[in-house]
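Service request form, structural biology core

Requester: graduate student, group of Dr. S.
Request type: structure prediction, single chain
Budget code: on file
Notes: please return the result as structure tokens.

Sequence provided:
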Amino acid sequence: MDFLYFVRRHVSIFIVCMVVGGVLGWSYSQSMPQTQAKSSLFYTLALKDASLNPAQSEEASTYFGETLVGWFRNQAFIYEIIEQAGVTGDISATKQERQNLIIYIQSEDLDTNKSIAQSVEKIIEQKLEEYSIQTGTTFTLIFQGKSKDLLVLSPALFPGMGVIFALFIALILSLLIEWYKDAVFSVEEVKTILGTDCLYSFSKNGKHADLSAVSLLLREYSPTFILAGVDNDVSFFTAEVAKEGCRMDKHITVIDADLFAKPIKYVLGVSERLKNYKGHTDVDEKNKTIPKNFFQDTRVEGLSFLPAGSGDRFLPNSFPSVSNNGECMIYSQFPYNYDVLQFEEFPVICVVTPGVTKRTTLKTLKSIRKKNIYFIALI
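Core staff response, request fulfilled:
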């Protein structure tokens, strides 16, 4: 399953590579013949010499068979056959057992193979005559039979091979990207780093988390510090937790470097007037843009600060409120330097996204919080 999630994370890379590989394979197939004819000629080599006994004749034929195979490895000899046939094709030969010779011919069609076979017979006969004159020995090739086969190549063969090769390239490229980002590969790797099991695996569907799992999260682990933004933007998850907390009448504190990102702004009912707001640290001024009765009705509190990590001074006031009420505080950025993590009696739950969350971040978190640490995975 981890591999399937890995593919889903890089689905765009896989799609692009597959399309490019398929197109290149199709282009290559257009330049290749669509049929492939294969033929073979089977001969037995014999020596005509009355002065030799059968054993000597067989031994001489065996050695000469190696000579014939060597002829077919000579490009000049092959070129002479092709030139006489007036067609193109591939020719090779191999020696079978002691006196047998098999000649292989491959071209686009059977007619071409036939022309090459006729040329092979003529050229070999001619060469044997020349060899007999020069050496005084007479060898002959006894024709034993032939075979032929026409292979029709599938139009999808080369495009398919291109797609398979492209998948391999996409896999390597995706692995290199995650290695460069130092991102955790899977839930199992997170378990190894944090030394704890995964509480829940949330399946992201657009911008909606599994609300039933969120309910269990808030019900079973309270009071809780949720580190929602561990190297990744999970404002939609923060919004879902806040909405579910409202439904359960939980007191939720959202601490976000950009509290008014669209998903959270929707949950908190923040006014559109905030678009033109230029301040960065005046939290009270920002919170004035939220309807006055919103906190009373929903019990969601917002602490916003920019840039990320500048909200330490707000936490001492927030922590007693959360811990006394026994509810939930959500951090939308990883607060590795916050004193709040030192309260080990309160559970810390990290929201981890394989392929995004960095290994070094989790190792840093583990070095700060030795126990009572859990994680949930967005996959």
